[in-house]
Amino acid sequence: MSEKAENAEKNLILQVQHISKRFTSKGVCVRAVTDVSFDVRKGETIGIVGESGCGKTTLGRCIVRAISASEGEVKYTARDGVTYDFLKLDKKEMKKVRKEIQMVFQDPYSSLDPRMTVIDIIAEPLKANFPKMPKAEIEQKVIEIAKKVGLNTTYLKRYPHAFSGGQRQRIGTARALILNPQVIVCDEAVSALDVSIQAQIINLLKDLQKELQLTYIFISHDLSVVEHISDKVGVMYLGRLVEFGETEKLFSRPCHPYTEALLSAVPIADPDIQNERIPLQGEIPNPANPPSGCYFHERCRYCQEKCKHDVPDLREVDGRMVACHFADEMRLRGFDYEEK
Ligand code: SF4
Question: What residues contact 224, with CB distance under 8 A and at least 6 apart?
Answer without folding.
Answer: 266, 267
